Amino acid sequence: MQGLYETEIKCPICDYEYQMTKVLTRRSRVTKRDEDFCPYYKDLNPIFYSVSVCPNCGYASFDSTRDDLTQNQKELYRLKVMPKWQEKNLNQHRDLDDAIKTYKLLLLTYKMIDAKESKIAKACLRLAWLYRYRIDESKENRFLKQMIKHNELAFENEDLSDAGRQELEIMYILGETYRKFGEFRKAINWFSKVSNHEDINANRVIKLKNREQWSIATEEYRKGKEYV
Q1: What CATH code would you report for 1-158?
Q2: For 90-122, what is each residue's pLDDT tens digit?
Q3: Which of 11, 82, 110, 181 is the most buried (most CB within 10 A)?
Q4: Which residues fall within 8 angstroms of residue 54, CB to CB, at 6 or more apart?
Q5: Do the beta carbons of residue 149 and residue 137 sit within 8 Å?
Q6: In Å, how far are 22, 77, 107, 177 from 102, measured between CA atoms?
Q7: What is the pLDDT of residues 116-167, one digit of tens each?
Q8: 56 near 77, Cβ under 8 Å?
């Protein structure tokens, strides 16, 4: 298909080499973003192609972040997932349904190998966005709630201080998601953390969006108190 290309990947579980389909940068122009940065594209959506799946053993991972697996994680995957995998190629042209399948496989993989909470949270957020594209609010909200759970665990148990913009973006998305769910005090708390972050002045887009949504959440909170 025009606008796609292939790149070679070596599976960290079984060493199988396979071709992964990707989207050319010039064919992935963003037309708009939601308040939580969910992007919409004019042509091909690169989010559909962000997960690579080994045809041989089924191991799934974010292609942009090669997983540095421990020996224990490899053994967990070989024990829990590989025996159930039926060889198939999921790395060619993908539609929305195909993308949802690969992200669900990614989420299963990460849970089976006890991956970091931040990685599980990222998979949940992408699944929520995919269901938003499908206009399935129930499943979107289900995965947004899972995203909140795993990201808050990540902040408790992982060192995200070196992540820079990524840490800011996660905190902002937590604030915006809580605002979306009407939990304004929690939203304001996360927006405040973003505002006070040492790297906020180096990330102008997040700074401006955080200020806007913090103001909206604060106003919504005050209105809610007036009607109590």
Answers
A1: 1.25.40
A2: 999 999 999 999 999 999 999 999 999 999 999
A3: 110
A4: 9, 11, 13, 14, 16, 18, 60
A5: no
A6: 14, 16, 9, 24
A7: 999 999 999 999 999 999 999 999 999 999 999 999 999 999 887 666 578 8
A8: no
